[in-house]
Amino acid sequence: MRRGRGATVVCVALLVQKFGGTSVADPDRMRTVAEHVARCRKRGDDVALVVSAMGKETDDLLHMASKITSEPDGREMDMLITAGERKAISLMCMALHQQGVEAHSYTGSQAGFLTDANHQNAKILEINPYRIKESLAQGIVPVIAGAQGVSTEKNVTFLGRGGSDTTAVALAHALDADLCELFTDVSGVFSADPRIVPRAGKMETITFDELLEMTATGCPKPAMRSVEVAHNHRVPLHVRSAFTWEPGTLVVERYENEEESAMEQPIIRAVTSDVSESKLTVVGVPDQPGVSGTLFRSLADAGVNVDMIVQNVAADGTTDISFTLPTEDLVKAQETLNNGVLSAISGTLVAPESSVGKVSVVGAGMKSNPGVAATMFETLADNNINIDMISTSAIRISCVIDADKVDEAVQHVHTAFGLDR
Amino acid sequence: MRRGRGATVVCVALLVQKFGGTSVADPDRMRTVAEHVARCRKRGDDVALVVSAMGKETDDLLHMASKITSEPDGREMDMLITAGERKAISLMCMALHQQGVEAHSYTGSQAGFLTDANHQNAKILEINPYRIKESLAQGIVPVIAGAQGVSTEKNVTFLGRGGSDTTAVALAHALDADLCELFTDVSGVFSADPRIVPRAGKMETITFDELLEMTATGCPKPAMRSVEVAHNHRVPLHVRSAFTWEPGTLVVERYENEEESAMEQPIIRAVTSDVSESKLTVVGVPDQPGVSGTLFRSLADAGVNVDMIVQNVAADGTTDISFTLPTEDLVKAQETLNNGVLSAISGTLVAPESSVGKVSVVGAGMKSNPGVAATMFETLADNNINIDMISTSAIRISCVIDADKVDEAVQHVHTAFGLDR
Fold this sequence. Notes:
2 copies of one chain form a homodimer.
Chain A: E1 14-19, H1 27-43, E2 46-51, H2 57-68, H3 74-98, E3 103-106, E4 113-115, E5 124-127, H4 130-137, E6 141-145, E7 148-151, E8 156-158, H5 163-175, E9 179-184, E10 205-207, H6 208-216, H7 224-233, E11 237-241, E12 249-252, E13 267-274, E14 277-286, H8 291-301, E15 309-313, E16 318-326, H9 330-344, E17 348-349, E18 356-364, H10 371-382, E19 389-393, E20 396-402, H11 406-416
Parallel strand pairs in A: 1-2, 1-9, 2-6, 3-6, 4-7, 9-11, 10-12
Antiparallel strand pairs in A: 4-5, 7-8, 11-12, 13-18, 14-16, 14-17, 15-16, 18-20, 19-20
Helix pairs in contact in A: 1-3, 2-3, 5-7, 6-7, 8-9, 10-11
């Protein structure tokens, strides 16, 4: 694999550059991006561009569909939504032509993205980017529509929100690119959301596994699925701003700086939070095999992505099962469970808690240092914040708390672990 | 950093080779190891050896101490235990001399291992291996006592069971070694324990994060702490057998083979299990801030390494908190909690469940593929195995079940995810 070492800038490189919706929101923004690409080309770099739909275009298209039907056909929805990126790639090519840069637009299908047939949330199966390679070989900048593909059933598919990140990372892997640059409206990955914690610091580097746990627990950018692909294939990533153009955060294998990686001491990197989830609890279930299988298979089949699961057996021999899920899937989940699942497991659904929040710390060396969890719990207690659910991994601790207290919790935990600048 | 690419063998390399207790159990075994080192030297490789105490020596020393006192002084215990490796390194040097290989023995202190003062479970703070480097520069094989160091208070310290692995990995990092080879009595890392699942396969490669989650959930070798160090510093590892000498499992950044890393599909690598833990439940705790902090700080201060934590609020406004911990820490944990902690949080400790088992699946792409958890739960249910607790991370799902059913569970889950050879 042709690849730079991440931290060093390769003189002449193949770059995949993704520009999100706000970066290409209007013709002026597009001209700015085109000027940037022209500079990269002048330096001698090869560039493949991945572009999202302009600004709020995707929202507008969804809104229009909702005015026609409340139960749109999946195939037609994807045909509709993907029109947004189609507009963006053609306009971006025109902007590039104005800068004297040769450029060709490609839909997801033309770029060779084969996906499954799960409309509005399609997963990439494989990429055959021969047209993109041809374009690059001819010195023509390929401009690829983000978040699209063509299904095994030959229908146009949409990868879902944040799908342009996934397109860019997967394409960078398929092209053996030297670097995948995700240009966005933040200047990198921070030790906490700077809107919540003004003293949060931008991280120069972050490891793939830490970024994976961060995005899995609420860090909004880059999109979770793109980070899974980058993590699994070790695609060199640079998360940076399309507004300030300053260097952002490089995603690396390991820290080069010894201060960032003490031999056996735990090092907390970041505090993340998420208020986009709700909590459902099924009570009074008999404590016997099959309950979890029935419950979570029905939710998986309905496409509900359950996050945390807590199950504990009560003294009376019944079990309560609580789990968190995206609030946007709450109605679908309730319908699924009420549609025969609850009666099958003899359970009762209590009123959903739609105001739960989750705060997490991510870092290395937690597993053999029990004090990290204790410090987190104490910090929350000292600030009168009650813990509802707890979940841990080798490099993460998460607590579900009241959504109203999430910002406060993030601030105190950020301070407690010495992350304030 | 001087470093091979993991999968390729560097012609002339600096190797750190660790030999565990069974590999050096008697003079014949030591001769076999010395012959192996002689061959490596003849090939031109530089070798630093890390050696554990012979066979059951550490157990014998602990047993002797227990006949004298039930409350030994920590400093004296470490002085005693470290005598085991002192014997092993000097005998190993004599065996090397017999093969015509120049060799010098070094205690942990002489090798420059500075640790904290936590006797019997000391953590490495830093390593200043200048004597080891001198030895290597002179062509003399340094033979280093595993699992030892000297504390900031200038006392001899023991790193704990499995500490030789940590010594080897940390030394390999400090020396910038090309490869750290952990020679043991198994031939590598398997998709499940081959004693439980005869159709488990040896893995040619495993990623650092997958190995971290595997050892965190019960894969006994290499030792958890050594894997944390290897993971954080990306120390190239080779887990292999000192009995068959065949190539073992290489620990890598990412899979080179596309079949092992489909673009967005989940790939389950391994099923792990653990029956070394017990479960404690504190019931009737008021649902208010501070409970978890008080509880887990007291356990952390007592050196109890809590694993899974489940907390859920009951209908009557009280909370039950269940957690798992190493069974060997069970008495210490109960004493700690009974010593004022329970009254402080108004909780009651129910009888411990000392027969819990944990079964986990480890792999990539689980977070965005809800079907993985459902398949695991269903497989357990289909085999009439009840789930007691559940915990998930971005690359792992763990279920606490009856210890008696663990082997059966591992077999069925291994089959369900298509891991049988």
